[in-house]
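Hi X.,

You mentioned you wanted examples for the new student's onboarding notes, showing what a folding record looks like when two proteins sit in one file. Here is a clean example. The first protein comes first, with its sequence line followed by its structure tokens.
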Amino acid sequence: MLELDLHNALGNGELHLYYQPKTDLRTGHILALEALIRWKHPRHGWISPGDFIPIAEETGLIVPIGEWVLHTACHQLKSWHDQGFPLIGISVNLSTRQFFQQDLVEMIENVLADTQLSASYLELEITESMTINERHAIEVLNKIKQLGVKLAVDDFGTGYSSLYYLKELPLDQLKIDQSFVRNMLKDKHHAAIIAMIVSIAKQLQLEVIAEGVEDQEQLSFLWEQQCLQGQGYLFSPPLPAQTISREFFQIQERAILYSKNLQGAVI
């Protein structure tokens, strides 16, 4: 049923983008917004991405949906820039199907040209599993990087990764999976994994950001580990574009207060 309805969801305007801030813990300033897809079914209401994204991936619908997400997110960010908002970035997830599209790089280039968004403001997120075919990953990511687009590995630490090839990939950022953040204060192994990821990122001269930050105690621990970027409900849940437009500076002011509370720590 969901597969049949998903075929019509995009054309019927049932898919929506929500945006979640990525914050610099040193200043509290919002660095970027991650675009997250949501589906409001006409009969069943909001459907979890965990329920419909695998269907979209399996059927190939993720390709047109993914292109719509990229175009919509870039268009929205360009609109915010034109309205005088800070020159922040936009972060968009690439699916496995998209990553193996032959025309992926051309599609990205066309979206940037159509929306008139500078490539330097776009960050694409991939998962570790996409790098299993190292030769393909290196080739595709280098082509994307040549456009001026930034690259991040999402949910780092939860899947396959070759540390040897990690240094060969033209990455800008590692994202610590929220499962480690959620359990780091009660599980020493999760805390050790976070410390390891931060250390790897520093050695490879990559930025590192923690997902799923929900309280001040978690924030303090991340700060102590020298993880200097955070994303999660402590700062803001994912919000529709209209709400971001209205509440952007209030969200940032709260983040600045959190940042000031951390300043006693030594970096």
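Then the second protein repeats the pattern, sequence line and then tokens:
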Amino acid sequence: MNTDDFFKRLEAHATYVERVAILERGTAWTYSQLLAAVSQRASLLTCTGVKMLASLADNGAAWIVTDLAALAAKVPHVPLPLFFTPAQIAATLAATSADAVVAPLPLARSIEPLGFTIVDEFSDGLVLLRRLTIAPALPSGTAKITFTSGSTGNPKGVCLSAPGMFAVAEAIAQATRALGVTRHLNALPFAVLLENIAGVYAPLLQGAACVALPLGDVGLSGSSQFDPTRFHGALVEYGAHSVITLPQMLQVYADSLRQGRKAPADLALMAVGGAMVGDALLSQAQAAELPVMEGYGLSEGSSVQTLNLPGHSRRGSAGRALGHARLRIARDGEIEIAGSLFLGYLGEAAGPGEWLPTGDLGRLDDDGFLFIDGRKKNLLITAYGRNVSPEWVETVLRDHPLIAQAVVFGDAEPVLGAVLWPADAGLSDDAMQIALDEVNRGLPDYARIGPWCRAVADYSAASGFATANGRPRRPQILARHDALFGATSIDPSIHSSVRQS
């Protein structure tokens, strides 16, 4: 599917004059209104000669119009997350040599010192800023540049094609068609590729409505604060049939349902991804009658590759390959993918081959369900020569109700160590130790946790300890907790778990 095919699909939906494409607070955009707004903004981009467009805005119809206008005008789009620091924004704009930015006026003022000038104001509250720059050489056909939030803290610009993104969106639309989704609640930032592809393009291809509320209205503040009451209220008020969440959001929401609140009756699919979920959380969510389904994907594959679906799922797996994707497991256990791959990294000449090594370890069962075992580069080899995937141990730790977040270290060490964030900030060290002892009793001796310490902050993009989709930034965490190994006798914040019986 190319860009013209995508817009023809939207035009077909527009023949039903009352069909709603976007719902905002107090406003419903029909497909006809959406297409008219997109056409107008695309014409402006073309007439003013924009070569590379960045955007910095909250979720809403204005963001969707801007994104679709860039597609229609064949202008590469660089979505900037609101949780980016000023330094990250400046670095991204420099790396991409964006010559235009769309943002609300207060944010636009912070961008002006980077050499931009406000040249136009739109009726939806956004303004257009321009500057003179020389656009970088890009792989042919680049429609979007999304920056991976890699665990090293040095994200790469992933160049994506429109046909690749639409192939993924169409595969999601086809796979979920039987669920009858007509309203999707956008609960993740649009600048996160997963929501952009699966939460905007896929619903629009289906002729469904995107419930595009400001992130605060769905309970998300920054990248680490989540209010389950607001989230629940939005699901119920708009009768959402589908939503995408991250594991930590799901944990908080599932916990809130224990207070007697019922799961939304209209919800048919609650997709969760971004990090390993864990059996305990899935069990808790499903016990609360939430239709939780785990999936798997990465930016270099244009987002989602696999997804469990109601009636077609397997416990503990990330689902089966969607229609656009192919999977295989290398001899060393690494997952490799093909289909709808990215065009290349920004600033690098070489593009991917037919098969892309993902860096993830996993296995496929006889029915094609994918099971994720952890990151290949995170594999720990203890001083006793035992190979341990830290994600496995971390998932078991997070399954304990008193442990909210955990990162495990121990490469070349005789025993593993952990940096823990409690479920309750008031939890005592003794209570944390008891929880850890309980977890250790269920682990083999080589995977048990010895020294541990409390994290100095939660694992979030705001603290710098996690990526936008919740994956821990291990080097940063270890650097801030470097006394974890070898200093238990002098640092009272470092504990040793010896009660493992």
